[in-house]
Amino acid sequence: MAKIKPRVKVPKTIAAGEVFPVKTLINHKMESGQRKDKAGEKIPRKIINKFEVTFNGAPVITVDVEPAVSTNPFFEFQMQIDGDGELAFKWTDDDGSVYETSKSIAVG
Amino acid sequence: MNLSRRQALALGGAAVSVTLLPVSFAFAASDASTAEIAAFTGGATAGEGSIELTTPEIAENGNTVPIAISAPGATSVILIADGNPTPRVAVAHFGAGAEPMVATRIRLAGTQNVIAVAQMADGSFVKTARAVKVTIGGCGG
Predict the structure, then answer these.
(1) B107 touches chain A (CB under 8 A)
(2) Contacts of B138 in chain A (CB under 8 A)
């Protein structure tokens, strides 16, 4: 399996109080547990089951993810900030692995 | 049992209307998704309100259907695909600083209704539904 690499996109400049979009993507098969292999056996479920974003430790958005979310799960949301800080992203896999990335944002 | 012509016609009419019911209630949710909604709302009824669901009218590929929910004033939203083997798609909780909107890409098993229910800051619930036509289903097989 390809190395899992989260990608996050935020605008280059952000004004205080401005609502800005954040786009995230992580490459993951999101095996739903519904598909069958060539022998007719069900392929076990393996998905990202939780996606969390925090800003300076405070939760911004938390998504409980089910198998119906597509391969390479993409999430876009909007937020606003009043000051500088660190936006941390965390994806939790069914097998317990955690994929993390973060982005420091400066206002101005 | 002897039926008069009038009774027989009435029965026939009733039978026809019963068979037509599923069509007229095409927007009613399946049992599984009704249960998911009830679990989310704790049994409260969801009204109409400030919630918007953006979906394509026709999705050529059910494996990746772009969906966006926007619900001003919401603290959390649930997305349900009525015709999927597991109707619940995702639940999003919004924290401080987040605008109550989220966009993602989902799998749809076939042509079906997609339902979004939002919990408002005052504890009330609103919901909306949209029909999506799917050309090729996204559940493999």
Answers:
(1) yes
(2) 70
Every domain of chain A and the residues it spans: 6-31+44-107
DSSP reduced 3-state for B10: helix
Q: Are B66 and B47 in contact (CB under 8 A)?
A: no
Which residues is A31 bridged to in the sheet? A46
Q: Is A39 on the interface with B (CB under 8 A)?
A: no
- Compute the average pLDDT of residues A15-36: 91
- What is the torsion angle, in degrees rounded to the nearest 10, for the CA atoms of residue A30, residue A92, residue B98 and residue A23? -50
Query: How many structural domains are present in chain B?
Result: 1
pTM given for the model: 0.81
CB A36 within 8 A of CB B140: yes
B97–A55: do the CB atoms touch at under 8 Å? Answer: yes
Which residue segment(s) compose the domain that B15 sits in?
A: 5-134
ipTM: 0.88
* Residues above pLDDT 90, as percent of chain B: 55
Closest-CA residue to B131 (of B40, B35, B29): B29
pLDDT digits (tens, 9 = 90+) for B43-60: 888 888 889 999 999 998
**Cα B129 from Cα B69, distance rounded (Å):** 11
Q: What is the distance between the alpha carbons of residues B51 and B70, in angstroms, rounded to a whole number?
A: 6
Question: What is the pairing mode between strands A98-105 and B52-54?
Answer: unpaired
CATH fold group of domain A6-31+44-107? Immunoglobulin-like (2.60.40)
CATH number at residue B38: 2.60.40.2470
